[in-house]
Design a protein that fits this description.
alpha/beta; 7-stranded mixed beta sheet; 4-stranded mixed beta sheet; 50% helix; elongated
Length: 445
C-alpha cells in the first residue's frame, strides 16, 4: 500500500541532502560498503510503504543479521569492478574455440582494454561467487527468514548451475575458451539472472549496515499495532543529526488525537516535532529508529509544516502560503485513512488576533477527526484556554529556567501549558535596548 509524503515534508525532516555537503537523515544510514549497496539503500529509503507484510519481512531480515554472527565482508573495489564489467557496452565474446583463441592472440600482440575488463571482471565474479557460497552455507545453519532464504536460493541456484559449478570447482587460471564462454553466459544468456544475484549482494550489504546501527547505536526496530484504534507511542526518541541529543518519550493515550505544544523559542519544540515525524517515516521503511522503543499504527501519509517558505513566484505572502498549506492538507484528510500531520507555529505569518482566531477554529475542528493524529505548536497561549474538544487533546510543553537572567533549556517535554515568555529577556541580555538608548542620547546632544 502507498504511503504519501510531499516535498515540503521531505525538506522539513531533512531526509535527503539539498546540497552536496548537507547533513541529512539519509547520511545517518548511508554506511554501506559498496556503491551498489548505497544505490540500493537510496531506492529503499525513498520508498516508504504501508504494507505490513513487507515491513515485517524487512524487520525479520535485519534482525537476522543482528541476532546471528554470520556476515560477509565485501570488497568495495571488487564489486565496483564487477558493476563496471556488467555495464560494459562491448558485445559479449563469442562462445566458440576459434573466436576465443583469436581474441586471446589479438590481446597478446596488442593489449585491449575491453578484453582486460572482461577477464578481470570474470575473475572478480568467480571470487565473489565462492565467498557467497561459503556465507550462505554458514547462514543456513541457523533459522533464516523466508524472504531472505528465497534470495539465498536464487543465488545458490545460479552459482550451482552446470555451466558455472564446474568452473568454480577448479583452482587454476581460466582458459581463454572458458573466459569467452563465461562472458557470453553472464552478459547475454543469463544476464537478468546474474543482475538479480548482484542485487542480492547489495541487499545483504544494506541489511548488514542497518543491523550495525542497532548494534552500535541506540536504534531499535518499530512495532506495528493492529486493530482499528490509531496508536503511537515512543520511548527515548532522539534526533540523530544532533551531536548531543536529548531524548523524549510520548504517547497518544486512548481517545486523544491532537497534541497541543507550547513553549518559548529555542526550547526544543521544532526538534521534537521533527523527531516525531522521523519516527513515522522511518517506521514505514521498516528501518531501525533512533529510540528505545516505538509502537505505532500504520499510516497512509505523513505531512509536516515546519519551515514553510514564502512563495514569491506566485505572489503569496507567508500567511497566504500557510493558509494554502492548511487547505491542501485538510483536503487530504479522509476518515477512511490515517494521516500523521504536524504544524509548527500555526499561522505565524499574520497578526496575533487573526492567528488566534484561525488557530482556535482549525484546532477545534481537527480535534474531532479520529484515526488521524496531529501535532500543533503555537506561541499563542490563549488558544489553549478556549479550544473545544479538550478531551481529545493532549497539552504538552517545553520550558526554560532563568539562571543569571539567561534562559537555560533542558529540551524535555512536559505535561501542561507553558506560560513562559522569555523573548524580552533574551533581547535585554543582548543589550539591544541600551544600544538604542545610546543612539537616541547621542542624537540629542
Amino acid at each position: 500500500m502507498r504511503f504519501d509524503i510531499d516535498k515540503q515534508t521531505i525538506r522539513d525532516l531533512e531526509l535527503f541532502p539539498e546540497r552536496r555537503n548537507d547533513k541529512s537523515i539519509l547520511s545517518v544510514y548511508n554506511k554501506t560498503e559498496t556503491v551498489g549497496g548505497r544505490e540500493f539503500l537510496y531506492k529503499v529509503f525513498s520508498s516508504p510503504v504501508s504494507n505490513r507484510e513487507l515491513l515485517e519481512n524487512r524487520k525479520n531480515e535485519i534482525n537476522f543479521f543482528v541476532n546471528n554472527a554470520c556476515s560477509i565482508t565485501f570488497n568495495s573495489g571488487q564489486l565496483d569492478f564487477i558493476e563496471y564489467y556488467f555495464r560494459n557496452q562491448k558485445a559479449p565474446l563469442r562462445p566458440n574455440f576459434i573466436d576465443a583463441a583469436a581474441d586471446k592472440v589479438k590481446n597478446l600482440f596488442k593489449e585491449n582494454n575491453d578484453y582486460y575488463t572482461i577477464t578481470q571482471g570474470i575473475s572478480h565474479i568467480i571470487r565473489l561467487f565462492g565467498k557467497l557460497k561459503v556465507f550462505i552455507n554458514e547462514a543456513r545453519m541457523v533459522n533464516v527468514p523466508e524472504t531472505l532464504n528465497h534470495d539465498f536460493e536464487r543465488v545458490i541456484s545460479f552459482i550451482s548451475s552446470k555451466s558455472l559449478n564446474s568452473i568454480l570447482a577448479q583452482s587454476g587460471a581460466l582458459s581463454f575458451s572458458q573466459i569467452n564462454n563465461l562472458d557470453y553466459l553472464l552478459r547475454y544468456k543469463v544476464k537478468n539472472e546474474f543482475r538479480e544475484v548482484v542485487d542480492v549482494v547489495y541487499k545483504i550489504d544494506v541489511l548488514q549496515t542497518l543491523a550495525g546501527l542497532m548494534k552500535n547505536e541506540d536504534f531499535t526496530l518499530p512495532e506495528y499495532l493492529a486493530g482499528e484504534n490509531t496508536g503511537f507511542e515512543v520511548s527515548n526518541a532522539f534526533h540523530p543529526l544532533l551531536s548531543s541529543p536529548v531524548s523524549n518519550s510520548f504517547s497518544f493515550t486512548h481517545g486523544s488525537n491532537l497534541c497541543f505544544i507550547t513553549g518559548p523559542n529555542m526550547s526544543g519544540k521544532s526538534t521534537f516535532l521533527k523527531t516525531m515525524g522521523l519516527m513515522v517515516y522511518l517506521a514505514h521503511l521498516g528501518f531501525p529508529v533512533p529510540a528505545k522503543r516505538l509502537s505505532l499504527s500504520l499510516f497512509d501519509g505523513l505531512y509536516t509544516t515546519i519551515n514553510l517558505p514564502d512563495n514569491l513566484n506566485l505572489g503569496y505572502s507567508h500567511f497566504y502560503s500557510e493558509v494554502k498549506r492548511v487547505k491542501d492538507l485538510v483536503v487530504k484528510i479522509d476518515t477512511d485513512k490515517r494521516h500523521f500531520i504536524i504544524f509548527d507555529e500555526l499561522f505565524r505569518g499574520t497578526n496575533v488576533k487573526d492567528a488566534y482566531d484561525a488557530s482556535l477554529i482549525i484546532m477545534s475542528a481537527l480535534a474531532k477527526i479520529q484515526n488521524n493524529l496531529f501535532f500543533i505548536s503555537t506561541h499563542i497561549l490563549e488558544v489553549a484556554e478556549n479550544i473545544e474538544n479538550k478531551e481529545s487533546i493532549l497539552f504538552r510543553c517545553f520550558e526554560s529556567e532563568l539562571v543569571d537572567k539567561t534562559p537555560v533549556y533542558d529540551f524535555r517535554i512536559k505535561n501542561g501549558i507553558s506560560k513562559e515568555r522569555v523573548g524580552l529577556s533574551i533581547i535585554k541580555n543582548e543589550d539591544i535596548i541600551e544600544i538604542l538608548e545610546k543612539i537616541v542620547s547621542k542624537q540629542k546632544q
